[in-house]
């Protein structure tokens, strides 16, 4: 009996241990380098609590003090950075970027001093830029000899930052790095060129010197020199990039990582190397944090600009969404981040900085929508902040010391707010109201902050942060919340009210729902536009950022420019026209796609040399044809991507010198302004917005044609009956106008630069 009892105990122990092992395996289960596995990622809670980070974009560019992308632009003949380089350092065939790096010392850089300042300002995570597109690493890189330990400052910049930030680890301050080097294999190819004119014509730049190929890289096998991600990065480059990322993770243990775009790399790799990197980051973090991933990975959704991955792939849920110098229009359920800067991305001597008020109000707005702000501050070449940047940070810090409780650890409310008001919550009993502008007559009325009929919000107190000793008069009724600000309170940047109560569950949501009814807002927007109505002798109309307007005459299909009330005939026959900041595109009668691009574009390649088929309009402008397609409708984005409806009715766009069709049939296409410009189409009489990997149906009925406002990205659509419908990111409205129209164009007024809507009467 004794032995049976012992066996029973052993069996129970084995079962117990087995359960424990199974539980442990469940906790430490590894991420696989696949979209499906990585979609189990959840943004770590520390990030959602932190809200505000400071980022240091600092490298050899700062030594020149003239701006970002110096390493590329100094090799572009005629560029302002090229001119600066020749005037101050010499010709790039003799004195190149390698010499800029070696001349840069950063002699006054003090990571501890900077980190102490950032913590004092209120940053909860501090991020260093480990490398940029210039292929120069700012750490003791094991896989790349051109690094800051071997060349330049002769210091491990990331190592010093890492040590300085970890000193504050017990205060919850987190450490992160960014890497931008995935682009280098194409971005940096400008160093392989030579001047076309002048005394150095034909003399190769120093990037052609094989002795420095480790920095300057070999010529791209595809001749790719775009500033976006490489179209098809060579295997050696993908492997080197991944090894350098892993080196950063292994030796500097970041809580945060960011690449400048989506998941690298397009082409034959199809982003697999990028997925390998992300899974490695998460698994390394789990290994170091008892089976929990504490690493935040941020990627951008620039796939909206080019869905096949030219800017990197974006897959919802595998990482945290990052948007550059922009904000979301409303609350996002999942955490997200805006990365922005106090001015230029790198130090520019006598450069302009944003105001503390603008930055603080942007932070408040982002946080109210469940986002974080990562704010870049770039030191001078010597490693110290200039006085303007230092004073700006101190001013932000002074506000944060008083009002930080309305930022850190807060959650979105039922709405982020409208106009001058922004709301967040903390726990069940506290709501913070931030007010941007001085209140008129010292009074604020918020109609949608109201209890349900017959109920109370149980408000126990309302105070102003930093002025708790001054009583705020308030009244809460079904008509809303009325506040009276005490006299002698200085309004600086934003005033924050702390509203405490016990029955906020009694909020009447009907007034809040009314905020999402876009009828009034869109009608107000439309009424405020500079509207021009043209007679029906035109079939199509378009305008650009410069106030230039084009139209197509119905009688003879002549493309004309409209200027000062007059027609300028261009001697071209067309059936559609589109324009944007990048240039103008028209569809010829034969279905050809023809472009006029006044300035060289950074983001899109077009045919050159013998492949460039050109013709001139009667005003002397040169137009070139994009071969290989016949189309019906066209438009162009701010960065130069051409979108068309081909002769089979398929939405297609032009990139990497080829046409790329999407699986979408449509009748019309339109492009908005902005860095990642909105693309929308009319399909089967309804409006569809392109969201990069899919189309979102925005509704509408019997729609026929559309255009997009340049600045606000309001879509103006016309039905087959000629009636106007308006759509934005938050809603839609059908206008009850008596007039009917057959085409619409959006642009800027040539006289005053205001937004304009042009309509052709039916």
UniProtKB/TrEMBL annotation:
The keyword Methyltransferase does not apply. The keyword Hydrolase applies. GO terms for biological process: fucose metabolic process; glycoside catabolic process. Keywords: Glycosidase, Hydrolase, Signal. GO terms for cellular component: lysosome. GO terms for molecular function: alpha-L-fucosidase activity. Residues 25-405 form the Glycoside hydrolase family 29 N-terminal domain. Pfam families: Alpha_L_fucos. InterPro entries: GH (IPR017853), Glyco_hydro_29 (IPR000933), Glyco_hydro_29_N (IPR057739), Glyco_hydro_b (IPR013780). It comes from the Bacteria. Its EC number is 3.2.1.51. Belongs to the glycosyl hydrolase 29 family. PANTHER family: ALPHA-L-FUCOSIDASE, ALPHA-L-FUCOSIDASE-RELATED. This is alpha-L-fucosidase. It comes from Maribacter vaceletii.
């Amino acid at each position: 009996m004794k032995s049976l009892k012992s066996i029973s105990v052993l069996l129970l122990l084995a079962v117990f241990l087995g359960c424990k092992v199974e539980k442990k395996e469940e906790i430490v289960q590894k991420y696989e380098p696949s979209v499906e596995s990585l979609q189990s990622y959840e943004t770590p809670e520390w990030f959602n609590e932190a809200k505000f980070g400071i980022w240091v974009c600092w490298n050899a560019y700062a030594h020149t003090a003239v701006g970002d992308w110096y390493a590329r632009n100094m090799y572009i003949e005629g560029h302002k950075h090229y001119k600066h380089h020749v005037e101050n350092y010499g010709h790039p065939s003799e004195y190149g970027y390698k010499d800029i790096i070696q001349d840069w010392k950063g002699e006054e850089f003090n990571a501890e001093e900077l980190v102490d300042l950032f913590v004092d300002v209120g940053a909860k995570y501090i991020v260093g830029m480990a490398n940029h597109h210039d292929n120069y690493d700012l750490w003791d890189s094991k896989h790349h000899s051109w690094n800051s330990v071997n060349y330049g400052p002769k210091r491990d910049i990331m190592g010093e930052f890492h040590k300085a930030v970890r000193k504050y680890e017990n205060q919850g301050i987190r450490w992160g790095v960014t890497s931008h080097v995935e682009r280098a294999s194409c971005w940096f190819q400008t160093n392989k060129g030579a001047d076309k004119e002048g005394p150095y014509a034909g003399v190769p730049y120093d990037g052609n010197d094989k002795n420095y190929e480790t920095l300057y890289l070999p010529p791209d096998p595809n001749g790719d020199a775009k500033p976006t991600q490489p179209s098809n990065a060579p295997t050696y480059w993908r492997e080197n990039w991944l090894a350098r990322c892993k080196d950063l993770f292994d030796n500097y243990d970041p809580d945060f990582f960011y690449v400048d775009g989506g998941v690298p790399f397009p082409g034959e790799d199809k982003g697999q190397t990028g997925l390998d990197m992300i899974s490695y980051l998460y698994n390394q973090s789990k290994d170091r944090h008892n089976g929990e991933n504490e690493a935040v990975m941020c990627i951008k959704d620039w796939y909206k600009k080019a869905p096949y991955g030219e800017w990197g792939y974006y897959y919802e849920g595998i990482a945290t969404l990052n948007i550059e110098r922009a904000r979301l229009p409303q609350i996002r359920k999942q955490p997200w981040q805006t990365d922005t800067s106090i001015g230029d991305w790198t130090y520019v001597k006598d450069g302009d900085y944003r105001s503390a008020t603008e930055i603080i109000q942007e932070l408040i707005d982002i946080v109210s929508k469940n986002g974080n702000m990562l704010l870049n501050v770039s030191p001078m070449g010597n490693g110290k902040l200039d006085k303007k940047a230092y004073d700006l940070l101190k001013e932000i810090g002074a506000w944060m010391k008083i009002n930080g409780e309305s930022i850190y650890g807060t959650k979105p409310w039922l709405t982020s707010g409208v106009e001058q008001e922004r709301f967040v919550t903390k726990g069940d009993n506290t709501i913070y109201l931030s007010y941007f502008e001085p209140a008129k007559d010292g009074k604020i009325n918020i109609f949608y902050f109201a209890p349900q009929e017959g109920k109370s919000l149980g408000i126990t107190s309302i105070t102003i942060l930093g002025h708790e000793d001054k009583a705020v008069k308030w009244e809460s009724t079904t008509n809303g919340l009325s506040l009276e600000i005490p006299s002698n309170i200085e309004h600086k940047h934003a005033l924050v009210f702390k509203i405490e109560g016990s029955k906020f569950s009694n909020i009447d949501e009907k007034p809040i729902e009314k905020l999402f009814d876009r009828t009034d807002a869109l009608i107000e927007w439309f009424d405020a536009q500079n509207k021009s109505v043209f007679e029906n002798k035109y079939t199509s109309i378009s305008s650009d950022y410069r106030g230039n307007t084009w139209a197509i005459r119905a009688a003879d299909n002549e493309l004309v420019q409209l200027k000062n009330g007059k027609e300028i005939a261009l001697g071209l026959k067309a059936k559609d026209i589109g324009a944007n900041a990048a240039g103008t595109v028209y569809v010829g009668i034969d279905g050809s796609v023809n472009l006029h691009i006044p300035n060289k574009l950074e983001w899109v390649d077009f045919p050159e040399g013998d492949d460039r088929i050109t013709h001139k309009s009667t005003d002397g402008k040169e137009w070139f044809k994009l071969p290989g397609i016949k189309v019906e409708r066209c438009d162009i984005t701010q960065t130069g991507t051409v979108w068309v409806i081909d002769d089979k009715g398929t939405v297609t766009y032009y990139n990497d010198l080829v046409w790329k069709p999407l699986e979408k049939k449509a009748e019309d296409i339109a492009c908005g302004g902005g860095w990642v410009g909105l693309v929308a189409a009319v399909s089967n009489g309804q409006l569809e917005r392109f969201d990069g990997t899919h189309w979102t149906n925005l509704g509408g009925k019997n729609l026929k044609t559309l255009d997009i406002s340049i600045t606000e990205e309001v879509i103006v659509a016309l039905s087959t009956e000629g009636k106007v419908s308006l759509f934005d990111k938050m809603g839609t409205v059908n206008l009850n106008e008596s007039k009917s129209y057959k085409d619409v164009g959006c642009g800027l007024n040539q006289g005053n630069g205001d937004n304009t809507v042009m309509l052709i009467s039916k």
